[in-house]
Design goal:
alpha/beta
């Protein structure tokens, strides 16, 4: 278990084993890290403390099994994304979502997100439009444009994560489960997209979260249709543009972009998919957009929306004194007696079992320092003593 935790946290930070060794002051070798991660050796308490310090976590986080399981629902990536980088992105998103669930618990926020994960069956692409309308209705959004999609998602406890920068990764959707119960969902996106591309990526991944395509329906196609219908409801678009047009102007596409926060090409494609313009006219627009270089950088790009939930929640937790489970710890062995001992024990017992185990594991690791400093206890032990150097062989 500890080996997998070391590996996941290391990958989440984008470090190689050699980089982790360097950040630990080279007190162990790369081969030792490899043995720890593969389960062939177990680090001593001293090494655990150095590992935790380098990784920026408490030792208890290495010693306890996470009670939050993360499942990746969709991962949009290009073929050029290597397996190592893909694991790094998944690890970073998973650890971030676990920390957000912990924040939710500390703040007493809803324990289950108000989102119908995989609850909209889709047997055809038009049904993805119906699903988008249904979710808008469930969330009381009406048919008006969504001014800030990121804030709206965060208001509904859909966490928005900024992924490690990599042009080969477009986005992912994932969920957090505890004992089989849904605790949180998240959408991960590239951190440097333009605002209009960012918004479509968010809406697309939202589609992956809520749609349940049946056999014969391409999930990516359904998610894109859902995303455009969620951002630009068909009925509203037809009211603005008309039910059938022989052509549309650049000014009209730019107006749709400004109103709904989608790119020029997405607006043109949406008009074609809704049957408002012909396929030939849409292809003409694709050629023009390519010639102008607008696929890479559009005119009048929209600003990127900034996720704010984590920052605000962390500030609130700190202001209200809602620290991590460390705040509920009982006094360490050898500490001076305290009149708060009984209340500290009550607070510890009031924690969920997983957090209680984390607190006790943390204290056990810290107490072990006493045995590292005083080796006389070894003289009373039977059998062979396993030295730390054995782990490095």
């Amino acid at each position: 278990m500890i080996g997998e935790r070391i590996r996941t946290l290391r990958l989440a930070r984008g470090w190689t084993q050699a980089e982790l060794v360097a950040r630990m002051g080279s007190i162990v070798t790369k081969q030792a890290i490899s043995k720890y991660e593969s389960g062939k050796a177990f680090p001593s308490p001293t090494v655990i403390r150095h590992l935790a310090s380098a990784l920026g976590v408490q030792p208890a986080r290495l010693l306890t099994e996470p009670d939050i399981a993360i499942r990746v629902i969709a991962f949009r990536k290009k073929a050029s994304l290597g397996a190592h980088q893909a694991r790094r992105i998944e690890a970073a998103a998973s650890e971030e979502l676990r920390e957000r669930v912990d924040l939710q618990d500390r703040l007493g926020l809803p324990t289950e997100p108000a989102i119908p994960v995989r609850q909209y069956p889709v047997a055809s692409l038009p049904e993805a439009q119906v699903a988008a309308a249904a979710l808008r209705s469930d969330w009381a959004l009406g048919n008006d444009p969504i001014a800030n999609l990121t804030s709206m998602l965060e208001d509904h406890f859909v966490h928005v994560l900024l992924l490690p920068e990599d042009d080969a990764c477009d986005g992912l959707a994932l969920e957090a489960l505890q004992d089989g119960q849904l605790r949180a969902v998240a959408i991960g996106i590239h951190p440097e997209r333009s605002g209009e591309r960012q918004r479509l990526s968010l809406a697309h991944e939202l589609g992956h979260l809520v749609l349940a395509p049946t056999a014969g329906v391409q999930e990516e196609d359904a998610a894109f249709v859902f995303g455009k219908a969620f951002l630009a409801p068909p009925a509203t678009v037809r009211e603005l543009v008309g039910a059938r047009r022989s052509s549309v102007s650049l000014q009209e596409l730019a107006a749709l972009k400004a109103r709904f926060g989608i790119s020029l090409q997405a607006a043109a494609r949406w008009l074609w998919e809704l049957g408002i313009i012909s396929r030939r006219h849409y292809q003409d627009w694709c050629i023009r957009i390519n010639q102008q270089g607008w696929r890479q950088k559009e005119p009048d790009e929209l600003p990127v929306e900034k996720p704010q939930w984590r920052e605000l929640a962390q500030a609130r937790a700190e202001q209200e004194g809602l620290g991590s489970p460390e705040a509920y710890r009982t006094p360490a062995l050898g500490a001076a007696p305290s009149t708060d001992l009984a209340s500290a024990r009550r607070a510890l017992l009031s924690l969920p079992p997983s957090q209680r185990r984390a607190v006790l594991a943390q204290q056990a690791c810290e107490i072990s320092a006493t045995y590292d400093l005083d080796q006389s206890w070894r003289d009373t032990q039977g059998g062979d003593i396993v030295d730390e150097d054995d782990d490095l062989a």
